[in-house]
Design a protein that fits this description.
This protein has 311 residues and is an alpha+beta fold. Helix content is 41%, strand content 12%. α2 packs across α3 and α5 (135-144) packs across α9 (264-294).
């Protein structure tokens, strides 16, 4: 057995899972970092709702500088709303920088025009100054993450998936997932309670097999799922929820096969790419904080700053 076979829960990088991945206005290299960034910008308090409150039964409309991010008929989860907000901040910044026509229309259902996508990419190339990682920084990373680039690494996994679907109360879903995580980490019954929980709660077909996904490699998992599970030495129920585009996962690592550990010289270029991507995420986070601090943000939670930050 290798994964649930459907590609719909983060455990398999099948064509169906790739097709279901959210669209991005950025390059493929930047897309994964941007998704993770938008999902993490939750520190600021909720902004007050617009004065023109929607009628009863309608969804509240969030806005960036007066531009709506959703319609009254769209009930969006917080992550999707933040992703739209970040995209709109960048689209407006591209207009202000003269890279995008002032008459470019805001996105519909989260999509932007091809011109806006290209302008956002030009804006980020210009505004984000990403230094090349030094040899010393690459060596430090290799020493701190010896298994990060293991060849042939596998893990025998079980999971319980709490799927994030349109209209779901994400806050209540998270509370339920966190409560189950604590319960399963405290269980000392040889895994029986985990299997029962998977059968009862999991939105993945593997729930009928006690959540068992079998032996998986990085390539057989959604990238954001793999980043949380592989490259470490933890065995047992992980101490954190694993986030993926499909929802929240309670994950148990039943066993690990570390594979072969390559030398530093063999993985130096891969490490440099990883460090550049991390630096890009940090720079984009700070840039979006500045944009949010200068904008009128309504109905969506974004971290913001009103003073320049060091990239």
């Amino acid at each position: 057995m290798s994964g649930c076979g459907t590609g719909s829960c983060g455990c398999s990088s099948t064509e169906s899972s790739q097709a279901s991945a959210p669209a991005s206005t950025l390059t493929p290299t930047q897309a994964a970092a941007y998704e993770a960034l938008a999902a993490s910008m939750v520190d600021a308090p909720v902004q007050p709702a617009p004065s023109s409150a929607p009628s009863a039964g309608a969804a509240p409309v969030a806005r960036i500088n007066g531009v709506p991010l959703n319609t009254p008929s769209e009930w969006l989860d917080e992550e999707t709303l933040r992703q739209r907000a970040c995209t709109e901040l960048l689209r407006q910044a591209a207009q202000q920088a003269g890279l995008l026509s002032a008459d470019d229309a805001p996105g519909v259902e989260g999509a932007t025009s091809a011109e806006a996508s290209n302008a956002i990419e030009q804006l980020l190339d210009r505004e984000l100054n990403i230094p090349e990682p030094s040899l010393e920084a690459c060596r430090r990373y290799h020493e701190a993450h010896p298994a990060a680039h293991a060849q042939g690494e596998r893990a025998h996994l079980r999971h319980v998936l709490f799927a994030v679907t349109p209209g779901v109360d994400v806050k209540q879903l998270r509370l339920r997932a966190e409560a189950l995580l604590i319960e399963l980490r405290c269980a000392d019954d040889g895994g029986a309670k985990f299997a029962q929980a998977a059968a009862q709660w999991s939105n993945c077909p593997s729930g009928q097999q006690g959540g068992d996904l079998g032996w998986l490699t990085r390539a057989e998992c959604a990238p954001e799922f793999a980043r949380e599970v592989f490259g470490g030495a933890e065995v047992g129920v992980l101490a954190r929820l694993v986030h993926s585009r499909f929802g929240l996962h309670v994950v148990e690592v039943v066993a690990r096969d570390p594979g072969q550990q390559p030398s530093f010289e063999e993985v130096r270029q891969a490490i440099a790419l990883t460090l550049r991507q991390q630096a890009w995420v940090n720079a984009l986070r700070q840039y979006l904080q500045l944009l949010a601090g200068a904008a009128t943000v309504e109905g969506v939670m974004l971290d913001s700053a009103d003073t320049p930050l060091v990239q």
